[in-house]
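ingest -> validate -> predict -> emit
validate: passed (alphabet ok, no gaps, 115 aa)
predict: started
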Amino acid sequence: MRPLWSAAGLLFVALGMVGAFLPILPTVPFLLLACFCFARGNPAWEQRLLDHPRWGPPLREWKTRRAISRRAKISALTAMGAGVLITALTAGWPWWLVVLGIVSVTGSWIWTRAE
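emit:
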């Protein structure tokens, strides 16, 4: 099972790196999944992610306190709002309501996490 966990971790790191360059795709959630997988497949790689100068602090905050920084919350909610607006302009009625419902639930969850 360890090789499968490691492979999944590598997949999530790759998706996180793509998300670092695309504005709508998230980065940290994929890296959180990578940490989860690496903890079961390759703890040394998990530690490398946790020690990373850019991505390590939010990963450690989530791992220790289940906390999301205010800046990250605002960024996430802004991107989610842009997604709703883009959907409303391109897909129209009633599809943007589906996206609005999903964003409302997930955005509420994000906003209520500790800082």
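The mean pLDDT is 93.
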